[in-house]
């Protein structure tokens, strides 16, 4: 461990001790449960700790608020995705409705897929979600994100390759095949 790494860890540790209670109090406004508040606050510090290039932080509360809000938006997006999927499943005929065990597996698969997609850069992930979740065409995605059609194609290929490697994708395909049969 280099001196910079140790110094960065110590800086983040001091920030944690000084600002964690404040951040938790601030997040209670947005989140319902204390566990969610603590999870988001802790994850904000983890992301700060894992920053690829440590920098000096002049306004720690502003930075922590920004990181925490991004994490909250990701959480809300995940919950919306789960809710939409469960709503779609409820609209399916009763004989093809999955069992509670299958629903639990599907929820785990969605969480795993979300973690997998979180490893993608922002525009690549946004391209994938706009295509697969929102159903936008490549030209619509290009206009929405302000990128070229070629970039949309490259981003989709990249994100699809990652999803193909993800085991949750196989489960989702089996579920989709069941519904269409």
Automatic annotation (TrEMBL):
InterPro entries: RNA_pol_sigma-70-like, RNA_pol_sigma-70_dom, RNA_pol_sigma70_r2, RNA_pol_sigma70_r4_t2, RNA_pol_sigma_r2, RNA_pol_sigma_r3/r4-like, WH-like_DNA-bd_sf. Residues 113-159 form the RNA polymerase sigma factor 70 region 4 type domain. Keywords: Sigma factor, Transcription, Transcription regulation. Residues 15-80 form the RNA polymerase sigma-70 region domain. Pfam families: Sigma70_r2, Sigma70_r4_2. It comes from the Bacteria. Belongs to the sigma-70 factor family. ECF subfamily. This is Sigma-70 family RNA polymerase sigma factor. It comes from Pseudomonas izuensis.
């Amino acid at each position: 461990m280099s001196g910079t790494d140790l110094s960065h860890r110590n800086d983040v540790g001091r920030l944690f001790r000084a600002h964690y209670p404040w951040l938790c109090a601030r997040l209670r406004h947005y989140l319902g449960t204390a566990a969610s508040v603590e999870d988001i606050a802790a994850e904000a510090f983890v992301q700060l700790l894992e920053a690829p290039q440590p920098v000096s932080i002049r306004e720690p509360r502003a930075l922590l608020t920004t990181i925490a809000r991004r994490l909250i938006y990701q959480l809300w997006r995940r919950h919306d995705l789960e809710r939409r999927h469960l709503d779609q499943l409820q609209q399916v005929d009763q004989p093809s409705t999955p069992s509670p065990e299958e629903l639990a597996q599907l929820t785990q698969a969605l969480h795993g897929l979300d973690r997998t997609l979180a490893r993608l850069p922002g525009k690549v992930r946004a391209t994938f979600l706009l295509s697969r979740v929102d159903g936008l065409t490549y030209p619509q995605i290009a206009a929405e994100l302000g990128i070229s059609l070629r970039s949309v194609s490259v981003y989709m290929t990249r994100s699809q390759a990652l999803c193909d490697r993800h085991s949750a994708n196989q489960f989702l395909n089996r579920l989709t095949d069941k519904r269409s049969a």
